[in-house]
Amino acid sequence: MKTRRRSAFIIPCIPTLVDKPPEGDRWTHEIKYDGYRTQIHLAGGHARAFTRNGHDWSMKYAAVLAASRELITRDVILDGEMVVQDESGRSSFKQLASAIRWDGSSLVFYAFDLLALDGNDLTKQRCEDRRSRLHELMGDPASHLRSTVQPGV
Fold it and tell me: Which sequence positions are flagged as catalytic?
């Protein structure tokens, strides 16, 4: 397996809007929350967060990164979406913008992919295998860090 520099931003796959979903068992889907695509990099006790364009937003996501360092003790690169949920549990882009600007305590990161683990690039592995490893790594949901992976689905 090829090793990638742990801090290197990985250009994400960007979803394509289509009129109807593709058919067949080679496809998977992911719920689109009303949030920002984010990569979280954890390495050697340090944590960084990047937007989908590679901008470092670690300061804006400090609460989530602190929770990430406590929950995950291994070096990882997670791909997911940063959201804020309203009282009914729905994501709110308006509240997200406010949280990023003023108070990040309500931010929640939903991880949907594990791109690297302990310095090993996992992007060439099957999506199902990466998601299974992500589920094992994350365990039970925490206040700021959750997985979208549902075992057996």
Answer: 32
User: Residue 145: which residues within 8 A CB-CB, separation 6 or more?
Assistant: 64, 67, 68, 71, 72, 108, 109, 111, 138
The residue extents of the domains of the chain are: 36-147
What are the residues whose beta carbons fall under 8 Å from the beta carbon of 14, sequence distance 6 or more?
52
Cβ pair 51, 81 in contact under 8 A: no
pLDDT along the chain (153 residues), means of 10: 58 80 79 88 93 95 90 90 90 91 90 93 92 85 76 52
Please state which CATH number belongs to domain 36-147.
3.30.470.30
